Structure formats: C-alpha cells, structure tokens
Amino acid sequence: MDNSNQKEPLIINNFNSSLISNIAVLNASEPAVFIKSGYKSYGKYSVLRDLNLNVPTGAIYGLLGPSGCGKTTILRSVVGRVNLDSGLIKVLGKEPGEKGHGVPGVLVGYMPQEIALYNEFTINETLVYFGFLHNMKRENVNRRRDFLVEFLDLPSKTRLVKNLSGGQKRRVSMAIALLQEPKLLILDEPTVGVDPILREKIWSHLIDISKASHTTIIITTHYIEEARKADRVGLIRNGKILAENSPEYLLQTYNESSLENVFLKLCIRDQDTFVPAKASNSLHNPLYKSNINQAEQHLNDEIVQVETKTASRTSLTTRISKSFSKTFRLPKFNNFLGALFKDSILIRRNYGFLIFQFLIPVIQISLFCLCIGREPFDLKFGIVNNETIYNSSEQFGAQMYIDELNNHTFKKQYLNWSEANSLAKKGKLWGFIDLSKDFTRDTIQKYNPLKPENTSIVGSNINVHLDATNQQIALITQARIAEAYQSFLIKFIPFLPFPIDPKLLNSPIVLQEPIYGENNPQFINFMAPGIMATIIFTLTIGMTGLMFVIEKKEGLMDRSWVAGINAVEVLSAHIASKIIIMTVQITLLILISTLVFGVNMKGSIFVSALLLLLQGFCGMSFGLACSSLAKDETEVIQITIGSIFPVMLLSGILWPIEGMPDWLRFITNFSPLTHSAEAIRSVASRGWSLGVTTVWFGTITVIGWSALFNLIALLFFNIDN
Ligand SMILES: Nc1ncnc2c1ncn2[C@@H]1O[C@H](COP(=O)(O)OP(=O)(O)OP(=O)(O)O)[C@@H](O)[C@H]1O
Pick from 112, 262, 444, 579: CA 20 to 30 A from residue 228's CA? Predict the structure, then answer.
C-alpha cells in the first residue's frame, strides 16, 4: 500500500455548508470503510450486487433505501458478522475479523436493528457486561454510564431492561454502542421510537463525536430527511448504491428539495436505464470529485490486486478456513469474565429455572427407579385344581404345590378349566395352571424308584397356559412356577411311601458366588448408570441449546460477537457458571439412586460423578452445536428430540448391545453415550477404576465427542451468516 500521501488532509464535504464546521479534517488515504464490488447472496437470493461503498474517516454516513434493499447486510458485513461472497472490504484499514483487528471488537460500536438486550439485566449490568467485553476499567464504565443515562434520558440505572418501554430499550441499545467511544459507530435505525427532541440531541451528539474524535458513523434511517444532517449519504436499491454523495450535492444536482424525491428520481432512472453505482459520483462536480478521487486513487492499487481474487465467488472452503482463523485466537480473560458475569446474573434472576433444573433430575431418577426393573406382582392367575373333586386325604399334593406359588407374584383365582380359559382369552388373567385329578398319585409314582414299566405319570405334570404377550411377565411367571415346584418337592418328599434322598432331586446347576453382581441380578443396576448419563446429557443439551439459540435469535449473541467475544469464551464461561448446577444435579442423581433405591455403587463415587460431569459437558457442547445449526427454539427442540431417542437406543442403555445385529453393534460405537455409559456401569456395578480400559476409554470418548461438538459450534457460529 502506498502510504506517501497518508498525511494529506481532505475536506470531504464542501457542499454541506451548514455542517461545514462539523466536518472532520480527514485523512484522505484512509477511508474508514470501503467496499469494492461486494456481492452477497442468501442461497439463490442475491442481496448485494457489485456494491461499492466509501465512507471517509470521521464522516457521518447515512445509508438510505427501502426495506429489504440490503442495508443491514452491509452493516453486518462491516462489523464482520456477514462474509461477502466476493469483493473487497476494508474497515479501519483491515478486513473485519482479521487477526489482531479491533473489528469486531473494541473499535466498533454496534447498535443492531432489533433491541438485542438481556431482559433480566438492569441498565447498569447491561453496560458493565459490554464494559467487560471491551476490557474497560470499572471507573470508566461508571463514568460513561452516568453520562449516557443522562444524555439518552434513561431511567434509573437499576431499572430492569424488561421493565423499560420500547423507546427506552432502544436508547439502552444505543448506549451500548456508544459505551467505549469507538472509532467506528454502526447504528441500524437508531432513531426509531425516539421523540423529535431526543432525536435532535442524538444527531447533535453524533456530529460532535465525529468532529471531536473523528469517529466514523454509519447510520441507517427510515426518516430519509433526517439524513440531511449526514456528511454523505448512500442511496441504495436492490443491493446497489444508486448514488453516494453529500446531501446538498444530491439535492443541487437533481434539483430537488428533498432527499426522498432525489431517491425517487434515481429509482425511476435505475428502472429505465441501468446506471452503474459510480455514475452518481461522477456527476460533474469537480471539487467533490477531486476530494473523493484522492481517497479512491489510493485504494486503486489495492483493489487491482484483489480484483483477481474476488472475480469469482469465494469458495466454501476458503470461507470455512476464514471462519476458523477468526475463531482460533487465544481466549481473552476479560471476555470470559464478561460471559461469566452475564451467565451468573441470568441464573440469579431465574430462581424458577434453578428449581426446575434441580427438580427434574430428582423426578426423573425417582420415576425411573420406581417404574423400571421392578418385578411384576399381583398378577391375576387362574388355578384349576382337579384333585379337589375327590376331596380325599390322599389327594393333598396339588394343593401343597399351589400353596408354594408366591402369593406376592400371583393373585390366585380358583376356577374350573373352561372359566379359566375364557377369562385368560378375554385378557382378564395372565394365565392359569391346571393340575390333574391324579396329581398326588402320579407324582408319587414319578419318584418311585421301583415303579413298574409303562406306568403313566402324565398326571404329575403342571400344565401352564400363559398369555405370553408380555415377555417380562411371561418370564417371571415361568420362573416363579418352576421355583414353586422345587420348594414343593422338599415338602412333599417326607410323604413318599419309600425312602428317597432329597439331594437327588436338586438341580445340578449350582450358581456360585458371581464374579460381579448378584445371583439375582436386578435390571435396574444395568440401566441406572445409562439413565443417569442420559438425564444429565439431555438436561444440559436443553439448558445450553435453548439459551444460546434464544440469544442468537434475539440478536444478543451477534451483539456480543461484534463486541469481540468468541465461542470458546462463551462456552467456557457457560461451563464454569453451570458447573455448580451440574454438580448438584449429579449429586442428587447418585444419592437418590443409591441411597433411596439401592442401585449398586461398588466403585468410586467420585469417578462415577466425574464421568457424569463429562457427560454433562458433552451435552452442553451438543446443545451449543444444535444452537449453532438451528434458527430458533423449535429447531433446537426438533434436533434434540430427534437425536436423543436414537442415541439412547444405540447406546445400549435400554437393552444390551449384545442383542443387536452385528452391523448395528458397530454403529453403536458412534453414539456419544455408548462408551461413557458402559464406563459408568463398570464403575458402579463392577467396582472398576479409571485404570481399567473400559473406564478410561469411556472417559476419552466422551471428551472426544465434546471436542467434536464444540468444533461444529465454533464453525457454524462463524459461517452461519
Ligand atoms: N439470513 C438471511 N437469510 C436469507 N435472507 C436474508 C437473510 N438476511 C437478510 N435476508 C434477506 O436479504 C434482504 C436484505 O435484507 P436486509 O436486512 O439487509 O435489508 P434492509 O435493507 O436492512 O431492510 P430493513 O430496512 O427492512 O431492515 C431481505 O430481502 C432479507 O429478507
């Protein structure tokens, strides 16, 4: 870049006689903002087309045009929130977002069109938050706050934003933009909802700061006539500048008394014949031309160099790599503190949210332990005892067996065969057993070592007729019926008319002390660790995803981004502020499941808690990634609901992975809960420590997943625009 004429002064506006005293003596070689051949499309819709914009340093520049013509898009590209598809853009000497540049950051004050304020903050807290992001000393923030509250006619600094009127909110929004006395001020419709007296005051302040401290101001307004106070206006239509000059010059040239009429004339001309944007600047005014030409001349070298670069659309990979280079700077402590300050206020002001956050895991784990894994009982079951028909003292065996059937499991109903069959068919019984009229006699014969050959012992059978539609109930029923027979035999043997060693009747299968777990394994011990991981994972997704998407939707995130914060700082503060909430949630989950419901915790409670904490971070990262991809709460909820159930199913939380087809087992490796849930289960049920492969591998995978989700979030927060 040729710097030889950098010190040469340039008076940019010789025509604005009423404002001549307000116009800064500008450095001709350094326009504050220039855009050359800027193109921007949203999908197929082209918003900016060959846009050329030149904002001299220290000038007030009014960007005028109808709704939807691309004004906000231009402002957002100036503050670094929109990447042009192609074209050259320089703001305060560098490309927005370039490493080490203060745009976005302290050099730019941005007032977006939407209110973009934290409703739960007071006016003071709002300014303190942005003070943190601009690394301002607290005395400085207080000094500016007192000035701005007075100047913008704001109510008490302790008033909550949510209790302010629409106009007051817009003025707080403007106070944020003015807070750090930036070099460049970007104001998108700052005077909407402001009364005429205050509007006058705001304009005179803008003129003052542009004059006194060479602040460059770009302003959009719907009140076209108020733009007469600007040093330079750009009339824009359909993403193109129709004319760019001082208001007086445009009025004189087009021989009109109002800018509105000038704009109309230009629009008609634009419709009739295509007039390139630059044509309006060459409207034969030699003085203006000479001033502006100096600035443009200086840019030409640079533009020529970049034109080859910008001739075609910037490729997606270039945009992604740009996004990464913007994102990956060392985190700044002041930004982290600012985000922490914001999060802690939001938590403090939302007691309902806190109670909800603690109540939900308590309810979920309690419901899980009460509803899942418990043995079914009071099952309506029919008993058909044909032996009773004879009512003989030798026919006691059937009743003896029936008495051994667990009264907790079965609600017995004595019926005849056809009644039992009919009730079972109507779904009023889970099944029935029928015992023959010869049950005692045939059972004796069954165990008689000297029984004659061809003796029929069919009558010793217990015939079971089940409604086997419910697998768990059918399995439990079968198991209890078999158990009852074992205990029946022990009682029946003394009544046999021949000696028999009872040990011979024992099952040869002997369950030794299990290596891990109990001989009577509880399903709850299998599921509880995975359920705890799922609860913490889903809670943190919701907590993070919804919070950030709302911030994004309401323009709060954009605003903080423009103030210089990045995703790493936002997320680390979010984690720091939520770690206490997560710790309480995890403590509640572990205490309730183990102490109240007796879920196994054989290994270290701290390792389990650590794994659950990591699962929480993973959920936060996933939530952040969701909010970077989603446009609003509905989309976040859709992504969350759409992903949680498959993740749960694929993670072997509801049913062992060993039951899945081989190809699906492989896929389970790619679910963020699979290995961490197995690790927690191994700690809780087997007592394993972090040194065992399953546990450390689970720990590493959950960290890996968190890193991946964060990467997605970092990328999409930067390129979503
Ligand atoms: N993220 C986006 N995705 C798709 N289209 C968008 C997006 N942002 C803006 N647009 C479209 O781009 C066009 C220009 O929008 P922009 O907000 O820049 O206009 P504007 O001149 O500021 O309008 P207004 O004065 O009403 O604020 C509009 O048609 C708008 O619908």
Answer: 112
What is d(CA 235, CA 265) in angstroms, rounded to the nearest whole number? 11
Same domain, 564 and 471: no
Decide whether any atom of ligand 1 lies within 6 Å of the 44 Cβ.
Answer: no
pLDDT at residue 18, rounded to an integer: 34
Ligand 1, atom 20, residue with closest C-alpha: 68
Q: Are residues 238 and 93 in the same domain?
A: yes
DSSP 597-611: T-----S-HHHHHHH
What pLDDT score does 234 carry? 93
CATH label of the domain that carries residue 465: 3.40.1710.10
Contacts of 19 (CB under 8 A, 6+ apart): 13, 207, 229, 231
Instruction: Check residue 5 and give its pLDDT.
Output: 39
* pTM over the 0.90 mark: no
The confidence score (pLDDT) of residue 300 equals: 41
Which atom of ligand 1 is least distant from the CA of 73?
18
Statement to judge: residues 82 and 230 lie in one domain: yes
**Cα angle value 263/268/269 (rounded, 5°):** 95
CA distances, 578 to each of 130, 585, 617 (Å): 21, 10, 10
CA 220 / ligand 1 centre spacing (Å): 14
Task: List all residues 6 or more positions away from 508 whose beta carbon is below 8 Å from its beta carbon.
Answer: none
Computed from CA positions of residues 673, 675, 680, 684, in that sequence, does the dihedral angle turn out positive or negative? positive
Query: Computed from CA positions of residues 227, 229, 230, 231, in that sequence, does the dihedral angle turn out positive or negative?
Result: positive
User: Of 310, 330, 362, which residue constitutes the final position of a domain?
Assistant: 310
Q: Are residues 202 and 67 in the same domain?
A: yes
Q: Does one domain contain both 356 and 385?
A: no
ipTM over 0.90: yes
